[in-house]
């Protein structure tokens, strides 16, 4: 069993892909495949199951992945300590976020102080971001209403209201604010399963013991915005996601005032890494909350 076999195994487990692991380590895909195959031969069992949606750990491989994460997290901490000597003039940080607005504000604040750090941000639903974090595929994440989890630490950075998004000529566009009762009879564009926005709406409807008719379900906030523009239904967006367009109007929803708390989160096992610790320190100095709750035409 060799170091590079474990390195290749750990990268494939994190990325869920042989090609992505190869890109991460700066190697060819055949080289990664060979290293993993050799490790499987040493272990005398399969470590991955290949399916149409990616590569997944076998049950037998999960304890090994926990150990390689400890091993390479320690190695990364050592590298970070060395990097501290150069005041983070170089390095990389991999992030995930369930929306670009707050995440990129945090990134901008960090890049202002540490311009030499290469940063990548993967966008996805709340569920996808959470899975990436727990799967060690990212160093940290920016997520709305992070679940309480003993494995994770969270630093709140912003609070947002929910807005009802309607076409500019819609009867509801003239309202200063709306309640769920006001939405009866207006078909709604739903977000996909795993969406934080949709979860907030569904929970509010459950509390109010109400339901709304569905026009259609779409897989991104951009698609929802375009569907509303086309008059296919009304939608919901957090206040930082309100589109800059004269064709839509965003009206505050009274039941969901200050409903979303965006936090920078990381695994406790990762937070001692110098670059992650520094990113968290920058986030802790920020207050990105939007104080205005007035009617917003866009």
UniProtKB/TrEMBL annotation:
Entry keyword annotation includes Transcription regulation: yes
Keywords attached to this entry: DNA-binding, Transcription, Transcription regulation
InterPro entries given in the database record: LysR_HTH_N, LysR_subst-bd, WH-like_DNA-bd_sf, WH_DNA-bd_sf
All residue ranges annotated as the HTH lysR-type domain in the record: 1-58
GO molecular function, one term: transcription cis-regulatory region binding
Keyword Transcription belongs to the record: yes
SUPFAM superfamilies: Periplasmic binding protein-like II, Winged helix' DNA-binding domain
Family according to the record: Belongs to the LysR transcriptional regulatory family.
Name of the protein this chain belongs to: HTH-type transcriptional activator CmpR
Gene that this polypeptide is encoded by: cmpR_5
